[in-house]
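Hello Y.,

Per our agreement to keep a running log of every chain we model this quarter, I'm adding this entry. I've kept the format consistent with earlier entries: sequence first, then predicted structure.
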Amino acid sequence: MGTGSGDSNIVTQTVNAVGAYALQAPIGVMTPFSGPPVVADFDGDGKPDIIIPSGGAIAVLLGKNIGSSNAPVTYFASAPINWLAVGDFNGDGLLDLAASGGGIVILLGKGDGSFRTPVSVMPPGPTRLIVSADLDGDGILDLAFQFGGGLQTMRGRGDGTFYPAVDLALEISNTFLVVTDFNSDDKPDIAVSLDSRHSIGVLLGRGDGTFQTPVYSGSSTLPVRIRISREGLFR
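Predicted structure for the entry above:
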């Protein structure tokens, strides 16, 4: 599977309960997609569901419907959607979606695998990579995302809305954006790939939603993948 437009095939394989992880035949689900899918239990039945960015919409395939004749349910947005982040953005205990591509829209989950009408939380613009995390330690999920060739954050209000975006003045590429605690100080940090430097940039967090000056890890080629070890070190 890759990114792009047009009819594409999302393939799943189901583990057989009998035997040592015998895989059943792959199941193809035809739906256009414009970015990587996300997987989580959106309807609370204990089965993973698949949500696929699909141009100006998202396609929702519930786990209970995989292998059936039920087609994915589509929710349309007012802007292109290429990337998705999952989290509870309004504090109701149900999973929601933040979608980027031509701005950022929020789809609040109803807990049954369906979503409320998408709501834009920032003006249209060239957004791409997006992740959700509590960047300022207030127990409310925030967003970090690529805007054009730069990195921005938005603090969550806890009701599904967000404060205006803050530009971190850092050029990034489309390869990856990761939020985790890299230096074991219990504060979220950000790692990004940097085309211009052919390196990885790490912004250590202060725990209040702000970040220190980036530290760069050089490379002779453009980084395309990052793995985080249990100790928070790069491998």
